[in-house]
Every structure is written in structure tokens, then in C-alpha cells.
Write a structure and sequence with these properties.
single chain; mainly alpha; two-stranded antiparallel sheet; 2 strands
Length: about 270
């Protein structure tokens, strides 16, 4: 299988795309539904992830991409756990007798990819591992299209996909949410963080808005909230949904950057 190295330029590409990743408005509800299902199974994903010393959310996102969050299927490729895998990689797990426990198969799939505590789990490293899990066919054969395996449902992807093995269509559109999009939403929720992006040091904000769980009706006030959210997103390790609501997540991000919650936050 052709491979690609995680070079400095590729790191910068991943970080640039992730930091500018915006979920398409018509897909927000579906993305939120999926991340809700992933977080609801956090303990089960962590049971596998902790043994390999990898992030729990990586396991959860791969589970969605490969198996549609179905615990009756192999994490390798979505084949049924009632037998060894048939599709690539075939014959997995090699040890044991079917039917397999999901955790056993998941550990085998991740181990087969060499995913453990020694791998690069920076933000760029995680995005690289997602793309590697699916293969670099898009990058190598159709570089004009960012892989939908990562970016589908975001503004970074419009169309173009493999409709069958080796069969390409420029007009076909992926109907599966991308792994990077799910990661971005989890980061916005505070459910995912990255080893290379520690909390930022306190810094004075360009403006301050009062805490509220509602979007302001006044357009000037709304503009100020959006400006603040965009400013917060410029800091490493801070991911805020730019929605105009100066609520809990925006206030938490504000505290990471300035050391204080927004005025009016009951947690102040």
C-alpha cells in the first residue's frame, strides 16, 4: 500500500485545515448526533485505548468510520464479528476463535496499524493516522480533492470520491461524516485535547461580552460575540463553535486564555 510521510509541510496542512474547519450548517445536527453516540460509549473506547496508550476518542471516531458505531462488527473494516475478517485486512484476528469480542478485535485492528503510545498523538499526528487508516489514495491519485474520510460535512469538501474499488467519480458526494469533522466538534465540546497544544497563557482579549446561553438579538452585540469567538479560536488548544452564543463553552475558552470566565458566568 502506498504510504506518505508526516512531513513538516503536511503537519502545517493538517493544522491549517483543522483550525479553519467549519461544519456545513445542514450537517450540524447529524454531526452532533454522532459525537453524542461516541461520547456515550467513552468508557468502552477507553478500555481499549488505555491498554494501547492512545486517545479514547481516536478509537471512537474510527469505530464510526469503519463500523458505523456497531459493536457487532470488526473495527478493521466493518465485517461481522461472527467470523474472521473477509475484506482487507482479511483473516483477522489471527488468534482466537470466532465469534470475537469487540474489544479483542478492536485491539487487534489498532495493533495491526502500529498504533500505540509510541505513535505521534499530536493534532497533526492524529489526522495523519486517520488518513493512513483509510489509505492515501485521495492524496496520491486525486490531490484536487481533500479526503472525505477526513473532511466530509465540512466546508473543505464538496464532491469527489471512490464509488467502488478503483472507480473514481468527480461528482459523487460522500454521505459519511469525516473523521476530522468529528474530532473538531469533540474539541469544541472539550471532549478532545491534544498533547502539542497546551492551554494558552493569559492574554487580554480585544473585547469582552457578557455571559448568556442565548444568541443576542442586537446585531452589534452578536457581531462582538462572533468576533470574540473567532479570536479565541486563534489560540492553540482552544476550539470554539462560532455560533454567536456567549455560553458555557465560550466562557470556558475565555477562561483558558484570560484566566477568568465571561462576566455574568455563574461559575465566576
Amino acid at each position: 500500500m502506498p504510504t506518505v510521510s508526516l512531513t513538516t509541510s503536511l503537519r502545517q496542512e493538517y493544522e491549517r485545515l483543522f483550525n479553519s474547519c467549519t461544519i456545513r450548517p445542514d450537517r450540524i445536527a447529524e454531526v452532533q448526533r454522532i459525537v453524542g453516540l461516541i461520547t456515550s460509549q467513552r468508557a468502552r473506547y477507553a478500555a481499549v485505548a488505555d491498554g494501547l496508550e492512545i486517545p479514547w476518542y481516536f478509537v471512537g471516531i474510527v469505530h464510526n468510520m469503519e463500523s458505523g458505531l456497531n459493536f457487532a462488527l470488526h473495527l478493521h473494516n466493518g465485517d461481522p464479528l461472527s467470523a474472521r475478517t473477509v475484506h482487507v485486512p482479511a483473516g483477522r484476528p489471527k488468534q482466537g476463535t470466532p465469534p470475537f469480542q469487540w474489544e479483542t478485535s478492536a485491539a487487534d485492528a489498532l495493533g495491526l496499524m502500529g498504533l500505540n503510545g509510541a505513535a505521534d498523538w499530536s493534532l497533526a499526528g492524529i489526522l495523519y493516522q486517520f488518513e493512513r487508516y483509510n489509505g492515501f489514495g485521495y492524496r496520491l491519485q486525486h490531490p484536487h480533492v481533500l479526503s472525505p474520510y477526513l473532511w466530509s460535512y465540512s466546508v473543505h469538501y464538496k464532491s469527489g470520491k471512490y464509488v467502488a474499488d478503483g472507480t473514481w467519480s468527480d461528482t459523487a458526494v460522500s454521505k459519511q461524516c469525516g473523521a476530522a469533522v468529528l474530532l473538531r466538534r469533540l474539541a469544541e465540546m472539550g471532549a478532545a485535547s491534544f498533547v502539542d497544544q497546551p492551554p494558552p497563557p493569559p492574554e487580554a482579549p480585544p473585547l469582552v461580552v457578557p455571559y448568556s446561553m442565548k444568541k443576542p438579538a442586537d446585531q452589534e452585540h452578536l457581531r462582538r460575540v462572533v468576533e470574540l469567538q473567532k479570536w479565541l479560536n486563534t489560540f492553540p488548544g482552544v476550539f470554539v463553535k462560532v455560533d454567536g452564543v456567549p455560553g458555557m463553552r465560550t466562557s470556558e475558552a475565555f477562561r483558558k486564555v484570560t484566566g477568568k470566565f465571561l462576566p455574568g458566568d455563574p461559575r465566576s
